[in-house]
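User: Assemble these into one structure.

Assistant: Restating your components, then the assembled model:
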Amino acid sequence: MENFSLFASVADDLAAVEEKLKAYTCSSLEIMNRASLQLIEAGGKRLRPAFTLLTAKMYKEDLRDVIPLAAALEMIHMATLVHDDVIDNSLTRRGQATVKNIWGNRFSIYLGNHMFARSLSIIAGYNRGDLLEVLADASMKICEGEIIQMFGWYNLNLGMKNYLQRIQRKTAVLLSVSCALGAMLCDISEGQIVLHKKFGYYLGMAYQVIDDILDFVADEKILGKPSGSDIRQGVITLPAIYALRRGENKEELACWLSSPEKCRERVNDIIGAVLDSGGIDYAYGVARAFCERAMRQLDKMPPGAPKEEFMKITEFVINRNF
Amino acid sequence: MENFSLFASVADDLAAVEEKLKAYTCSSLEIMNRASLQLIEAGGKRLRPAFTLLTAKMYKEDLRDVIPLAAALEMIHMATLVHDDVIDNSLTRRGQATVKNIWGNRFSIYLGNHMFARSLSIIAGYNRGDLLEVLADASMKICEGEIIQMFGWYNLNLGMKNYLQRIQRKTAVLLSVSCALGAMLCDISEGQIVLHKKFGYYLGMAYQVIDDILDFVADEKILGKPSGSDIRQGVITLPAIYALRRGENKEELACWLSSPEKCRERVNDIIGAVLDSGGIDYAYGVARAFCERAMRQLDKMPPGAPKEEFMKITEFVINRNF
């Protein structure tokens, strides 16, 4: 958990979130508790709660009222992962067997719904419609992003705009919301809240572009999944979009990428063609531009340890992935 | 839609709910709107919104503030049906092709999640944590009910208690919540709200017992699905539980019901054995007892058209199903 060092100023609060997550997994159904506990113990980067806590920490020392919200955000994230594993038929995640693998699809769908409902009951405790509104809106956008992605499989005519729309809803929205909700629990102006929302958004966009780059260049050990898995599923990300426009072998690449069989069989050729095209450098440029925009939001935030950590995180995102 | 006559005193409000449902289906994704609209137009009994409206109508004339909540409840119900069709691999519902059938599993899971999130954004508008708490709690119980049911397949040792737990979470909880939420939007005491909650609960229990009876005795046209479908899926309901305890051929029945193959192949023999055992009469007795308890709650409610309609609905439930 090396990244925890990036969240040093909220380390105690993150530990409290971890405890809360465990405490929330007590339903009257033993099997449900076991599955939830396994999900929690499988770990994860806890990016969303960390972002919520770091944001709030800019304005107040005592984060006790932020802990449940941060835990609820992580539960929503975990719930979407459980559903994703059903949808993508994934048998392992972070090297561990998925809930779907152990307990099957039916149980996984109900567990995901249950975790989502549990997080709502936590949100209800705040008695604030504005928090729920932000979360509900984000959840809708995330679903829409997945559906946009579905209809983009093996479709080469979807350019940059569609790609940005997809990653926005897939990653940036929830990171943006994580920051916004942390800010909404502090006594600050609407304008200041917007800064945090934008910061999370731009950083989330950069994060996902880098994630998509790593799917081409990193090895399995770093990714925790086979590299080229986007290609294998027909998901066309930024480096490939660039290669389809500018690559030397763009006709051949287009032929491969439009066929589910070729996407599986010729995955190495496809990766090679994308690397040759300069698509990776191009995508890095896009990620860097998003990081710079994130930095510009940070400039306007109050000084202190949380701000410095957010700066380090932003640098970390662009230099290597979590 | 013959049952709409049972909801005469809120007919206009139900029409307004229908309009609201359609109005809520406007996302930026055309395909999502089309699927949602098909779900709405496929109809349904609109029991949940009707119960919310009828309850509120006991205390006030103008239900404009209740309409969005009633629509949100129906959307939550529709969302669970979309997920259920994925889980149960159902190709038709009420004689129409399911969303799963037309657009596939992946889309259906996201659509269900999207509808659930949409209903939350409606609830957020009320800015009342207590409403969200009740709903979140109900959603958790519903998931738990489904999981309890899963682990009960082909399991003959689960008696009456497990059955009641299952149907409570499957049906009674959401009807109970529908009444409770309607009451919570009126200026009445906590004790009075509990009356409505209990009424919905008991009526929901009776409703599901009758539904389970009909799966043995009604023909396909009334059910909108093949009769004996519970048996085929290994779901052991009250008439079968009785037959396993008291039936003349209980050993043979037990042998059939514990085998997935026999449940499919010998469905007619199983139905015959349950009918012979007197399990249907026994289950009717249980349903009647629940209806009587529902009636006792009604006795304590203020007189007027909504109360009379709730009485008729209760009689209707016990005499025939919707």
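The first strand of chain A starts at residue 92 and ends at 93.
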